[in-house]
Amino acid sequence: FSREFLSFRMSLPPYTLIDHGSPLLWHQFQDLVREMKWTSDDNTVLSLTPTLSSTRCVFAQKNDDGSFLGCVVWNEYDDLAFIGFYLVSPLVRKCGLGSLLWSRAMERIKETGRIIGLRAVPEMAAQYSSKDTPFEVSRLRKNLLTCSEMREFCDKFPTVVDTVKLASELTQEQKIDLLRFDQEISGRDRSDLLIPFLTCSRTEGSVILNGEGKVMASAGITSTGFEKDNLFKLAPVYASSLSEVASLIRALLPFCEKFSPDSRIIVHILTGTVGERELEKVVGHPQNIETVTLFSAPIENRLNGNKCFVPHNHGSHYDG
Protein backbone atom coordinates (compact mmCIF):
# COMPACT_ATOMS: atom_id res chain seq x y z
CA PHE A 1 0.00 0.00 0.00
CA SER A 2 1.17 3.55 -0.67
CA ARG A 3 1.93 5.95 2.16
CA GLU A 4 -0.91 8.20 0.95
CA PHE A 5 -3.40 5.31 1.16
CA LEU A 6 -2.28 4.43 4.68
CA SER A 7 -2.60 8.04 5.82
CA PHE A 8 -6.17 8.10 4.57
CA ARG A 9 -7.02 4.84 6.29
CA MET A 10 -5.49 5.97 9.57
CA SER A 11 -7.71 9.05 9.62
CA LEU A 12 -10.82 6.87 9.96
CA PRO A 13 -11.53 6.35 13.69
CA PRO A 14 -12.92 3.07 15.09
CA TYR A 15 -16.55 2.82 14.03
CA THR A 16 -19.56 0.51 13.75
CA LEU A 17 -22.15 0.14 10.99
CA ILE A 18 -25.67 0.00 12.43
CA ASP A 19 -29.07 -0.44 10.77
CA HIS A 20 -30.85 2.19 12.88
CA GLY A 21 -30.35 5.80 13.90
CA SER A 22 -29.99 7.29 17.36
CA PRO A 23 -31.29 10.79 18.20
CA LEU A 24 -27.69 12.06 18.03
CA LEU A 25 -27.08 10.47 14.62
CA TRP A 26 -30.30 11.83 13.14
CA HIS A 27 -29.57 15.32 14.51
CA GLN A 28 -26.04 15.39 13.11
CA PHE A 29 -27.27 13.97 9.81
CA GLN A 30 -29.85 16.77 9.53
CA ASP A 31 -27.26 19.48 10.22
CA LEU A 32 -24.91 18.05 7.59
CA VAL A 33 -27.67 18.02 4.96
CA ARG A 34 -28.35 21.69 5.71
CA GLU A 35 -24.65 22.52 5.49
CA MET A 36 -24.53 20.77 2.11
CA LYS A 37 -27.31 23.15 0.95
CA TRP A 38 -29.40 20.35 -0.53
CA THR A 39 -32.47 22.55 -0.75
CA SER A 40 -34.70 19.88 -2.31
CA ASP A 41 -34.52 18.13 1.07
CA ASP A 42 -36.52 20.65 3.07
CA ASN A 43 -36.85 20.79 6.84
CA THR A 44 -40.10 18.83 6.89
CA VAL A 45 -38.35 16.00 5.05
CA LEU A 46 -35.50 16.09 7.55
CA SER A 47 -37.81 16.12 10.57
CA LEU A 48 -40.24 13.48 9.29
CA THR A 49 -37.80 10.98 7.78
CA PRO A 50 -36.73 9.42 11.12
CA THR A 51 -40.39 8.91 12.11
CA LEU A 52 -41.80 7.31 8.95
CA SER A 53 -42.51 3.59 9.07
CA SER A 54 -41.09 3.26 5.55
CA THR A 55 -37.67 4.67 6.49
CA ARG A 56 -34.64 2.38 6.40
CA CYS A 57 -31.03 3.37 7.08
CA VAL A 58 -27.41 2.36 7.56
CA PHE A 59 -25.32 4.64 9.78
CA ALA A 60 -21.62 4.61 10.57
CA GLN A 61 -21.05 5.85 14.12
CA LYS A 62 -17.85 6.47 16.05
CA ASN A 63 -17.27 3.87 18.72
CA ASP A 64 -16.13 6.31 21.39
CA ASP A 65 -19.05 8.75 21.41
CA GLY A 66 -21.66 7.41 18.95
CA SER A 67 -21.34 10.45 16.69
CA PHE A 68 -22.09 10.57 12.95
CA LEU A 69 -19.59 9.49 10.30
CA GLY A 70 -21.87 8.66 7.38
CA CYS A 71 -25.16 7.12 6.27
CA VAL A 72 -27.42 5.84 3.54
CA VAL A 73 -31.12 6.58 4.16
CA TRP A 74 -33.93 5.23 2.01
CA ASN A 75 -37.65 4.49 2.11
CA GLU A 76 -39.39 1.27 1.13
CA TYR A 77 -42.97 1.32 -0.08
CA ASP A 78 -44.89 -0.65 -2.69
CA ASP A 79 -42.33 -2.01 -5.16
CA LEU A 80 -39.77 0.78 -4.61
CA ALA A 81 -36.76 1.43 -2.42
CA PHE A 82 -35.96 5.12 -2.87
CA ILE A 83 -32.61 6.41 -1.59
CA GLY A 84 -32.97 9.98 -0.41
CA PHE A 85 -29.59 10.47 1.28
CA TYR A 86 -26.08 9.11 0.87
CA LEU A 87 -23.44 11.17 2.60
CA VAL A 88 -20.23 10.92 4.60
CA SER A 89 -18.80 13.44 7.04
CA PRO A 90 -16.21 15.69 5.31
CA LEU A 91 -13.71 14.69 8.01
CA VAL A 92 -13.57 11.06 6.84
CA ARG A 93 -14.17 11.22 3.11
CA LYS A 94 -11.86 9.23 0.80
CA CYS A 95 -11.35 6.65 3.52
CA GLY A 96 -13.49 3.94 1.93
CA LEU A 97 -16.36 4.37 4.38
CA GLY A 98 -18.83 5.46 1.71
CA SER A 99 -18.31 2.27 -0.27
CA LEU A 100 -18.93 0.14 2.83
CA LEU A 101 -22.14 2.03 3.63
CA TRP A 102 -23.35 1.71 0.04
CA SER A 103 -22.60 -2.01 -0.10
CA ARG A 104 -24.51 -2.62 3.11
CA ALA A 105 -27.50 -0.61 1.87
CA MET A 106 -27.52 -2.41 -1.50
CA GLU A 107 -27.35 -5.78 0.26
CA ARG A 108 -30.41 -4.99 2.34
CA ILE A 109 -32.41 -3.43 -0.50
CA LYS A 110 -31.73 -6.22 -2.98
CA GLU A 111 -32.95 -8.76 -0.44
CA THR A 112 -36.40 -7.14 -0.74
CA GLY A 113 -36.51 -7.42 -4.53
CA ARG A 114 -37.61 -3.80 -4.86
CA ILE A 115 -36.69 -1.44 -7.69
CA ILE A 116 -33.99 0.97 -6.51
CA GLY A 117 -34.44 4.69 -7.03
CA LEU A 118 -32.38 7.71 -6.03
CA ARG A 119 -31.86 11.40 -6.58
CA ALA A 120 -28.30 12.20 -7.65
CA VAL A 121 -26.53 15.53 -7.86
CA PRO A 122 -25.64 16.11 -11.54
CA GLU A 123 -21.91 15.54 -11.10
CA MET A 124 -22.58 12.06 -9.66
CA ALA A 125 -25.37 10.99 -12.02
CA ALA A 126 -23.06 9.29 -14.54
CA GLN A 127 -21.41 7.24 -11.82
CA TYR A 128 -24.74 6.04 -10.40
CA SER A 129 -26.21 5.31 -13.83
CA SER A 130 -23.17 3.18 -14.76
CA LYS A 131 -23.82 0.85 -11.82
CA ASP A 132 -27.02 0.19 -9.87
CA THR A 133 -29.45 2.75 -11.36
CA PRO A 134 -29.04 3.12 -15.15
CA PHE A 135 -32.53 4.47 -16.00
CA GLU A 136 -33.07 8.24 -15.83
CA VAL A 137 -36.67 9.27 -15.18
CA SER A 138 -36.56 13.00 -14.53
CA ARG A 139 -34.50 16.05 -13.65
CA LEU A 140 -35.25 18.72 -11.09
CA ARG A 141 -34.45 22.31 -12.01
CA LYS A 142 -34.15 24.99 -9.37
CA ASN A 143 -35.61 28.51 -9.61
CA LEU A 144 -34.96 31.05 -6.85
CA LEU A 145 -37.15 34.12 -6.30
CA THR A 146 -37.59 36.75 -3.63
CA CYS A 147 -41.08 37.26 -2.24
CA SER A 148 -41.43 40.45 -4.27
CA GLU A 149 -40.39 38.66 -7.46
CA MET A 150 -42.86 35.90 -6.68
CA ARG A 151 -45.59 38.48 -6.17
CA GLU A 152 -44.75 39.98 -9.58
CA PHE A 153 -45.21 36.53 -11.10
CA CYS A 154 -48.59 36.10 -9.39
CA ASP A 155 -49.77 39.50 -10.57
CA LYS A 156 -49.47 38.33 -14.18
CA PHE A 157 -52.54 36.16 -13.71
CA PRO A 158 -56.09 36.88 -12.53
CA THR A 159 -57.26 35.67 -9.14
CA VAL A 160 -59.59 32.69 -9.40
CA VAL A 161 -63.24 33.20 -8.50
CA ASP A 162 -63.31 30.06 -6.38
CA THR A 163 -62.57 30.10 -2.64
CA VAL A 164 -58.88 30.09 -1.61
CA LYS A 165 -58.07 29.01 1.95
CA LEU A 166 -54.94 28.34 3.94
CA ALA A 167 -54.50 24.75 5.06
CA SER A 168 -54.31 25.93 8.67
CA GLU A 169 -57.86 27.30 8.29
CA LEU A 170 -59.45 24.16 6.85
CA THR A 171 -62.19 22.32 8.67
CA GLN A 172 -61.62 18.67 9.54
CA GLU A 173 -63.85 17.65 6.66
CA GLN A 174 -61.86 19.81 4.25
CA LYS A 175 -58.57 18.34 5.52
CA ILE A 176 -59.89 14.87 4.78
CA ASP A 177 -60.89 16.03 1.32
CA LEU A 178 -57.35 17.40 0.80
CA LEU A 179 -56.03 13.88 1.43
CA ARG A 180 -58.54 12.57 -1.11
CA PHE A 181 -57.34 15.12 -3.66
CA ASP A 182 -53.68 14.30 -3.06
CA GLN A 183 -54.35 10.59 -3.55
CA GLU A 184 -56.12 11.39 -6.82
CA ILE A 185 -53.01 13.21 -8.05
CA SER A 186 -50.30 10.91 -6.72
CA GLY A 187 -52.08 7.59 -6.98
CA ARG A 188 -51.10 6.78 -3.39
CA ASP A 189 -52.48 7.25 0.09
CA ARG A 190 -49.87 9.63 1.53
CA SER A 191 -51.69 10.66 4.70
CA ASP A 192 -48.75 9.41 6.79
CA LEU A 193 -46.70 12.19 5.21
CA LEU A 194 -49.22 14.96 4.60
CA ILE A 195 -50.86 15.05 8.03
CA PRO A 196 -47.58 15.70 9.89
CA PHE A 197 -46.31 17.85 7.01
CA LEU A 198 -49.06 20.40 7.56
CA THR A 199 -48.30 20.62 11.28
CA CYS A 200 -44.53 21.14 10.95
CA SER A 201 -42.96 24.42 12.01
CA ARG A 202 -42.57 26.97 9.21
CA THR A 203 -44.93 25.06 6.96
CA GLU A 204 -48.21 26.19 5.43
CA GLY A 205 -50.52 25.13 2.64
CA SER A 206 -53.24 26.62 0.50
CA VAL A 207 -56.17 25.11 -1.38
CA ILE A 208 -58.81 26.16 -3.88
CA LEU A 209 -62.33 24.93 -3.15
CA ASN A 210 -64.94 24.55 -5.86
CA GLY A 211 -68.60 25.51 -5.50
CA GLU A 212 -69.30 22.28 -3.65
CA GLY A 213 -66.53 22.94 -1.15
CA LYS A 214 -64.26 20.23 -2.58
CA VAL A 215 -60.50 20.71 -3.01
CA MET A 216 -59.65 21.25 -6.68
CA ALA A 217 -56.08 22.57 -6.34
CA SER A 218 -53.46 22.71 -3.60
CA ALA A 219 -50.01 24.03 -2.73
CA GLY A 220 -47.58 23.86 0.16
CA ILE A 221 -44.57 25.82 1.32
CA THR A 222 -41.97 24.95 3.92
CA SER A 223 -38.57 26.13 5.13
CA THR A 224 -35.36 24.62 3.87
CA GLY A 225 -31.83 25.05 5.17
CA PHE A 226 -31.06 26.85 8.42
CA GLU A 227 -33.79 29.10 9.85
CA LYS A 228 -31.53 32.16 9.72
CA ASP A 229 -31.48 31.85 5.91
CA ASN A 230 -35.26 32.53 5.64
CA LEU A 231 -35.33 30.22 2.63
CA PHE A 232 -38.57 28.44 1.68
CA LYS A 233 -39.42 25.70 -0.79
CA LEU A 234 -42.68 25.76 -2.72
CA ALA A 235 -43.96 22.20 -2.88
CA PRO A 236 -46.23 20.68 -3.90
CA VAL A 237 -48.35 22.64 -6.38
CA TYR A 238 -51.18 20.66 -7.97
CA ALA A 239 -53.46 22.79 -10.15
CA SER A 240 -55.21 22.93 -13.53
CA SER A 241 -54.04 26.37 -14.72
CA LEU A 242 -51.44 29.05 -14.11
CA SER A 243 -54.17 31.28 -12.66
CA GLU A 244 -54.81 28.62 -10.02
CA VAL A 245 -51.07 28.33 -9.38
CA ALA A 246 -50.76 32.10 -8.92
CA SER A 247 -53.76 32.23 -6.59
CA LEU A 248 -52.37 29.42 -4.43
CA ILE A 249 -48.95 31.09 -4.18
CA ARG A 250 -50.41 34.54 -3.55
CA ALA A 251 -52.18 33.16 -0.47
CA LEU A 252 -48.88 31.74 0.86
CA LEU A 253 -46.67 34.81 0.45
CA PRO A 254 -47.71 36.53 3.72
CA PHE A 255 -46.65 33.37 5.57
CA CYS A 256 -43.08 33.72 4.24
CA GLU A 257 -42.98 37.50 4.64
CA LYS A 258 -43.88 37.33 8.33
CA PHE A 259 -40.50 35.69 8.99
CA SER A 260 -38.64 38.24 6.86
CA PRO A 261 -39.58 40.57 4.00
CA ASP A 262 -36.37 39.36 2.38
CA SER A 263 -37.40 35.69 2.42
CA ARG A 264 -36.57 33.78 -0.73
CA ILE A 265 -38.59 31.00 -2.34
CA ILE A 266 -37.28 28.01 -4.28
CA VAL A 267 -39.44 26.59 -7.05
CA HIS A 268 -38.37 23.17 -8.30
CA ILE A 269 -39.54 22.26 -11.79
CA LEU A 270 -39.67 18.53 -12.56
CA THR A 271 -39.23 17.39 -16.14
CA GLY A 272 -42.18 15.56 -17.59
CA THR A 273 -44.82 17.60 -15.74
CA VAL A 274 -47.09 20.45 -16.76
CA GLY A 275 -44.78 22.63 -14.66
CA GLU A 276 -42.04 22.14 -17.22
CA ARG A 277 -44.40 22.81 -20.12
CA GLU A 278 -46.14 25.90 -18.73
CA LEU A 279 -44.72 27.23 -15.45
CA GLU A 280 -41.00 27.26 -16.16
CA LYS A 281 -41.18 29.66 -19.08
CA VAL A 282 -43.07 32.31 -17.08
CA VAL A 283 -41.66 31.98 -13.55
CA GLY A 284 -38.09 32.78 -14.65
CA HIS A 285 -34.99 32.92 -12.41
CA PRO A 286 -33.59 29.48 -13.33
CA GLN A 287 -30.51 28.42 -11.34
CA ASN A 288 -29.41 24.92 -12.32
CA ILE A 289 -30.23 21.22 -12.46
CA GLU A 290 -30.25 20.27 -8.79
CA THR A 291 -30.97 16.53 -8.95
CA VAL A 292 -31.34 13.69 -11.44
CA THR A 293 -33.79 10.88 -10.61
CA LEU A 294 -32.48 7.42 -11.52
CA PHE A 295 -33.90 3.91 -11.18
CA SER A 296 -32.58 0.37 -11.43
CA ALA A 297 -35.38 -0.58 -13.85
CA PRO A 298 -37.80 1.30 -16.14
CA ILE A 299 -40.62 2.87 -14.16
CA GLU A 300 -43.63 4.97 -15.04
CA ASN A 301 -44.05 8.49 -13.73
CA ARG A 302 -46.72 8.08 -11.07
CA LEU A 303 -47.79 11.69 -10.88
CA ASN A 304 -50.70 13.25 -12.73
CA GLY A 305 -48.65 15.18 -15.29
CA ASN A 306 -51.57 17.45 -16.15
CA LYS A 307 -51.87 18.85 -12.64
CA CYS A 308 -48.39 18.58 -11.16
CA PHE A 309 -46.80 22.01 -11.52
CA VAL A 310 -44.36 21.52 -8.63
CA PRO A 311 -43.93 18.10 -6.97
CA HIS A 312 -43.28 17.50 -3.31
CA ASN A 313 -39.85 15.98 -3.86
CA HIS A 314 -39.64 13.66 -0.90
CA GLY A 315 -37.37 10.65 -0.95
CA SER A 316 -39.99 8.37 0.54
CA HIS A 317 -42.63 9.29 -2.02
CA TYR A 318 -40.82 9.41 -5.35
CA ASP A 319 -40.95 12.98 -6.62
CA GLY A 320 -44.40 13.32 -5.23
From TrEMBL:
Gene3D superfamilies: 3.40.630.30. It comes from the Eukaryota. Transmembrane segments: none annotated. This is N-acetyltransferase domain-containing protein. Residues 16-155 form the N-acetyltransferase domain. InterPro entries: Acyl/Acetyltrans_Enzymes (IPR052729), Acyl_CoA_acyltransferase (IPR016181), GNAT_dom (IPR000182). It comes from Pristionchus mayeri. GO terms for molecular function: acyltransferase activity, transferring groups other than amino-acyl groups.
